[in-house]
Structures are given as structure tokens and as C-alpha cells.
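Recap slide: Isocitrate dehydrogenase [NADP], sequence and predicted structure.
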Amino acid sequence: MAKILMKTPLVEMDGDEMTRIMWKMIKDDLIVPFVDLRTEYFDLGLENRNATDDQVTIDSANATKRLGVAVKCATITPNAARMEEYDLKKMWKSPNGTIRAMLDGTVFRAPILVKGIEPYVRTWKAPITIARHAYGDVYRDVEMRVPGPGRVDLTYTPADGGDPQSVCVHEFAGPGVVEGMHNLDESITGFAHACFSYALETRQDLWFATKDTISKTYDHRFKDVFADLYETEYREKFEAADIEYFYTLIDDAVARVMRSEGGFIWACKNYDGDVMSDMVSTAFGSLAMMTSVLVSPHGYWEYEAAHGTVQRHYYKHLRGERTSTNSVATIFAWSGALRKRGELDGTPDLVRFADALERATIGTIEDGKMTGDLARITTLPNPRQLDTEEFILAIADRLQKELA
Ligand code: NAP
Ligand code: MG
């Protein structure tokens, strides 16, 4: 069988731990045998980030700006324990944070639905796609430990030399903590545009929620930006497409989501999206069945799995024990990136390959062959639990038949 040709390379961002092990298996068994794979490779594994003073992360984001489409493996975000484990020079920032900030994008996460893995929420029948605002708030905050009695102020000093404005955060009578957060009209507007456009493109309702009753300036700004943009640019298009924009308070949104049927996009502020996407993916079956794509208003696309590096499984793997780690979300990161590359380059064979890879993956599970996380929760009779590599090889087998 002739290999499928690629016109433009993908940006390939390798990562850490168990996902790094699966990354190589996916390439070796599911992609390279069928596609004449062209990538620009960046090793975002923690050792190389440390060796390059994190320059490799910046280089990979710049390459994405040049080539347009990236696929990323999960990476470690260092904490105190990792400082010691990897003997790090510095507690490097989250690569995802750095890349998102450079591409200025919105992250859309959607569960992969398969027969036999039923959502824990009985009413959910269609995927709930979470759009996470990928800039600012607590992820870009500054924090201070307040050691004892004293006063903390928040001060704005206008760049044009105007009078500074101050508000008192708190008069501390004893020790405590304080945090300063920010966001930008430009970023919120970009986020709103991305959500409205993606809703139109996928013909799904768009929900948005904040806590504007409590946060009367900060969260209220988000509400206003969405409302203004909807009225001025999207209302007519939404009505023509027969979809709805719906705003409510975040706690009301959570309650409504739980009793909904799914099938809509839920736009979330940064922290809400971080937390709610873990809840939604788990409730749909498994964190390992959640796809994630960063869509930049400048036309860049970065695909990845929503889960982390699956550290516990990696340590088992290092001890020589059998692991059964689910590679589906990482496979869908590859298929998503290859499909987008094919669409942008006008290479339909690549698009067809991406479709076939996804069908082979879903078909393998629906045939009863799956990893442990799914075998534990499936409603299919007599599931066969495969180990990490056996599962990928079972998909390869099916993919061969799909493409023949
Ligand atoms: P995690 O890697 O997502 O794993 C948490 C647990 O979820 C696992 O221990 C496992 O449960 C289950 N799980 C997740 N993915 C799975 C898969 N593909 N197959 C089977 N089970 C899966 O999160 P974490 O342990 O909190 O974080 C580990 C590292 O990942 C951290 O260093 C963190 O910084 C990083 N991280 C990276 C990203 C990213 O790059 N996008 C995102 C999140 C976290 P059991 O152990 O019970 O089987
Ligand atoms: Mg999270």
C-alpha cells in the first residue's frame, strides 16, 4: 500500500512519562506505516525543557505560528516534588500555559462517545463541549503571603501620567494571603468570537456563565463583552442557524448542565473550564476519552489529550509491570491534527486517513477490546482488557482492514 503524502509538516511536541511511551507506539504502529509523516519535532519532555531553559517550548509555539497545526503530548508541570525528581534549575511554567498565551487561543474539549461506555448522568445523550478561556485570571496571578498586620492596596498607574487610582484590598489584623488577577478586553473579546464562531460552525447552542452578581466589575466585564458581541455581530447568524446563545450564573449553569441532554458548547472562564472539563469528562466515562483543541483567532490549531502524563502508570511501567493505559485521547489528538492539516493543504487522503483512524479506534472498543479504565465501567458483556500496547496493536489491525 502506498503511503499517504503530506504537503506541510505538523509541529510535533513530545512530552513526558506514560504519554511519552504511548506517543512513540502511536507513531510507530498507527501512523508511520500508513502516512509519509512529516513533522518538525520539539522535545517538550521535562529534561529537555530544563536543558534548554524552556526555550524549546517557545520555539515550538513559534513553529506553530509558522506552520499552523500542532499535535502535543501531555507534559509535566513542575511542582516541588518534580524539582527534586528531575533536579531542575527552576520551577518551569506549564508549557500549555506558555503556548496558549503565545497563540492566544481558546481550548475546546469534547468527550469521545462510544457504545458501551454510558455517561454517569443518565440524561446526557450528546457530547458537551467545554470552551475554556485560556488567558489570565488565577493562571496569571500574582500572590503574596501577608506576614502580619498591615494594609494591602490595589493601584493602577496610568501610562499617560494621569492620577493613580487605588482601592484597599484588606486591612489585615493578622497574617493571611492576597492575590491579584487580571484579564484583557482583547482576550475576552477573542474568546467570545471563538465561541460564537465555533457554535455556528458546529451548529450547537452556546452557554456562558460567570459569577457577575458577586464580581460586579471583573466577571461582569465578561458578561458584557459576550452580550455586546452577540447583539452586534452574531444574533442574526444564530437565529438563521436556529441555535441559541444563553447566559446564566455559573451555579445555575452547573445545575442546568446536570439535567440537560448535552449537545451544546459550554463557554467557561479559565478556572471554571479547568475544573468543569475534568468533571464532564469523568462523567462521560473517562478522562482518557476527552479531546482538546486550542483554536487561535489567528488561524493556528493545537491538538492534544485533555489528561496528564498518567504518572502512576509510568512508575508501574518503569518497574516492569504491565500497564493498561488508555491512548484514545492521544490518538484523537493525532487524527485531529492530521485532519486539519489535510483540510488546510487540500489533501483529502490525509482527511480520510484521520477518519479511518478514529473509526478503527472506536470500533475496537465497541468490539469489546479496551483498556482497564474502560473495561471497569463498560456495559458491554465480556469486555477484554488489553495492555497499553496490545490495545494500540488491536487498533492497528482494524485500521489495516479499514484502509484496505
Ligand atoms: P493525569 O495524568 O491525568 O492522571 C490522573 C489519573 O487519571 C491517573 O492516575 C489515572 O487513574 C487516570 N488517567 C488519566 N489519563 C489516563 C489514561 N490515558 N488512561 C488511563 N487512566 C488515565 O493527572 P495527574 O496524575 O494529576 O498529573 C500527572 C502529570 O500530568 C502532572 O505532572 C501534571 O502536571 C501533568 N498534566 C499535564 C497536562 C497536559 O500536559 N495537558 C494536563 C494535566 C496534567 P488511575 O491511576 O486511577 O488509573
Ligand atoms: Mg484540570
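The chain has a mean pLDDT of 95.
The longest strand covers residues 165-172.
(End of recap.)
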